[in-house]
Write a structure and sequence with these properties.
Structural class: mainly beta
Helix content: 10-25%
CATH topology of one domain: Porin
Radius of gyration: 29 Å
CATH superfamily of one domain: monomeric porin ompg
Largest sheet: 13 strands, antiparallel
Shape: globular
CATH class of one domain: Mainly Beta
Distance between the termini: 43 Å
Number of helices: 10
CATH architecture of one domain: Beta Barrel
């Protein structure tokens, strides 16, 4: 009922498959709990819960409801063995008001393949029914008591963890002979004091709960409950796993084959004397590259070596694009050209120079571990910016593109409404005047939606930089989303630069300058960004308000391996406060990314207001994961429990680390298995 792995209202010690992302919605006794849970590692999971509780307090502007946001964390200490149970430890509502706060240690064991039993001890919520003195008080007397009342929203109450009275809970689950149907029963240790003694939300007549749990063919889980001797409940859980594409895999076209050269002959170089050889090679590359979703930017060639700079327009996995281009070159380049240097270009930036021998491609195409062998034999080096006059350009500038497409803007889990949205049409255009110099913009026309309704505009002791977001939604149905000029450049070895000017985001325009140091084969990177930002008019066309600020950060990036990336930003934020943002992302090889962040600045929690400090979750979902068709587009969403003015960063498009990191370090190596796809 709390949206985590468990029995009915009590947890178990089991874990979901690694990477599992589930959304659970449960209802009973006027309470709706919506929970998003992510299995971060095989043993560690985290949850974000948004609960709507009716009849919580005096009638207010929300009709007597409370909208509560909370986070959970749990860790499986011991995996289940032949004789030992699985054991897990968890904490519920660790960052929130504390309405649902509780901690537990729980064990689960299969006694037969179809029957498993669970027993545990809990504190807080889980220690409120048939409780007894906390056994941890034998270690320290401070464990004997637990402070009452609700905490300041957003602040972890460490001093309450595993403190106060404790209680035991237990349960059993039987997987019936009917496929997908399970029967559950439990003895709950949650007295629901806040709901039954302090408020008359429901009558708690028993500690026994019962459930029928059924898994549909598509994996959706539906559960019906009889709870506490008086209430019926319902739960629906849908899940997905980034490791298991909804499409079942790629349905894109098969890759081109390697065309081997004749063996035992001396490859001639007379082709270099042909007057139109460069034009012929360029025409062939442009034609064949286009069929593979690639774009030739420029190339240079001599009798034994070809360097090709290209854009990946289609493939969401970088090594897949690199592998297809390498195979195409075996079809295009004269036989004497043995060395291929492939340089992926992003926004005019040369990300890496990958040197692959043609003879390796010919020898390893059909080997079982051919991708690993190619990676071991290839060289990965810094790619310098393209010198003038040495390369044959294949793009005519300015390069202009435009599109018209549907637009959806979501606001999730705000303090007054679980979901708001606007639907409209977006016109977007981009012109690359020369390599790295890009003019782009987007105009949005709203058709329908409710983002303009009941959006809070909360008074704040800080400069109003984010808390007035509702005024932007109310003021105009047609708006300029962004309108910018960007210049990307490479001032030196392992250095990347960006300057952006214009209307940068919904609420601010100005000038942003960034420099990134990122060696090709390093897991570390360092960036510096400085911005002058001025607040835009609420009507989001042309015009500014009076408020402006200089903001910026020094950023450290670390690819920690196994798909985990950390980022620390230290600097000045939009409201003039100073502090740091910490972000941890879990990236999957297919492009999925799930992360969490928090920001602490010199703004006191009381001044920050509800939520105490900025924090949230972020998701990046590749469109190809759903369709199976190779595409570079992604769906990105940031979910915050509440949006306030403290710790607010400027939302600048195309920050450098996100542009070039796919072609660097461990991230490129982890995904190299797609080289032959």
């Amino acid at each position: 009922m709390f949206g985590v792995t468990g029995l009915i209202d009590m947890p178990t010690a089991e874990s979901q498959p690694e990477g599992e992302l589930s959304f659970s919605s449960t209802y009973f006794a006027g309470t709706l709990r919506n929970t998003l849970t992510f299995q971060i590692t095989p043993r560690l999971s985290g949850s974000f819960r948004y609960a709507i509780i009716s009849n919580w307090g005096p009638v207010t502007t929300t009709g007597g409801r409370t909208y509560d946001r909370s986070f959970d964390a749990r860790f499986q200490l011991v995996r289940e063995g032949k004789y030992r149970p699985a054991v897990a430890i968890g904490a519920q509502d660790i960052i929130g008001t504390g309405i649902y706060s509780g901690e537990y240690v729980v064990a689960t064991k299969h006694v037969t393949p179809a029957v498993k039993v669970t027993g545990g001890i809990g504190w807080g919520r889980f220690g409120s029914n048939n409780s007894f003195a906390n056994p941890l008080a034998a270690l320290h007397p401070g464990f004997a008591t637990r402070s009452a009342g609700f905490g300041l929203g957003g602040v972890p109450v460490f001093g309450n963890w595993f403190r106060g009275p404790a209680a035991l809970f237990a349960g059993v689950e039987w997987q019936t002979p009917v496929k997908g149907l399970a029967v559950k029963a439990e003895l709950s240790s949650d007295a629901y004091t806040l709901e039954t003694v302090d408020r008359s939300i429901f009558n708690r007549r028993s500690s026994l709960n019962f459930a029928l749990d059924y898994v549909l063919k598509n994996g959706t889980r539906v559960s019906g409950y009889y709870l506490y001797g008086s209430e019926l409940g319902l739960r629906v859980t849908v899940g997905l796993n980034p490791k298991k594409p909804k499409s079942g895999g790629s349905v894109g076209a098969a890759p081109p084959p390697v065309v081997p050269r004749p063996k035992g002959v001396i490859y001639k170089t007379e082709w270099t004397e042909q007057a139109d050889v460069s034009a012929v090679l360029r025409a062939n590359m442009k034609k064949l590259f286009k069929a593979e979703g690639l774009e030739l930017v420029a190339f240079s060639v001599d009798p034994y070596r070809a360097e090709v700079r290209f854009r990946n327009l289609t493939h969401d996995i970088a090594p897949e694009a690199i592998g297809r281009l390498a195979r195409l070159l075996t079809q295009i380049m004269p036989d004497s050209v043995e060395t291929f240097v492939l340089v992926p270009m992003v926004k005019g930036l040369a990300t890496v120079a990958i040197t692959i021998l043609r003879s390796d491609l010919e020898a390893l195409e059909h080997d079982v571990d051919g991708a690993e062998q190619i990676f071991a034999r290839a060289r990965f080096q810094n790619a310098p910016a393209m010198p003038a006059g040495e390369y044959i350009s294949a793009i005519s500038y300015p390069d202009f593109t435009w599109s018209v497409k549907p637009h959806l803007q979501l606001s999730l889990f705000d303090p007054d409404n679980p979901a708001r949205f606007d639907v409209g049409i977006k016109l977007e255009a981009k012109a690359e005047v020369r390599p790295g110099l890009v003019f782009s913009g987007a105009l949005i026309k709203k058709i329908f939606g409710n983002l303009n309704e009941n959006q809070r505009v909360t008074a704040t002791a800080l400069a109003t930089v984010r808390s007035d977001v509702g005024l932007y939604h109310r003021s105009s149905n047609a708006k300029i989303e962004f309108l910018t000029a960007e210049y990307f450049f490479q001032p030196g070895t392992n250095l990347y630069g960006r300057v952006t000017i214009g209307y940068l985001e919904q609420a601010f325009g100005g000038v942003s300058a960034e420099m990134l140091w990122q060696p090709v084969n390093s897991s570390f990177a360092i960036g510096v960004e400085v911005n002058f930002a001025q607040k835009r008019d609420y009507v989001q066309l042309f015009g500014f308000q009076a408020y402006n600020v200089v903001t910026g950060h020094v950023s450290a990036y670390w690819d920690m391996g196994n798909g985990f990336t950390s980022q620390v930003d230290v600097g000045r934020y939009l409201a003039g406060d100073v502090g740091a943002t910490v972000t941890i992302d879990r990236a999957f090889d297919n492009g999925w990314k799930v992360g969490a962040f928090f920001t602490l600045t010199n703004v006191p929690f009381a001044t920050f207001g509800e939520g105490s400090f900025d924090k949230g979750l972020r998701f990046v979902m590749p469109v190809s994961w759903f369709s199976g068709v190779p595409r570079t587009e992604t769906i990105a969403k940031v979910v915050r429990p509440i949006l306030r003015d403290g710790g607010a960063k400027l939302d600048v498009p195309n920050r450098l680390y996100g542009l070039v990191s796919d072609y660097h370090g461990d991230r490129l190596q982890r995904r190299w298995g797609r080289f032959w796809r």
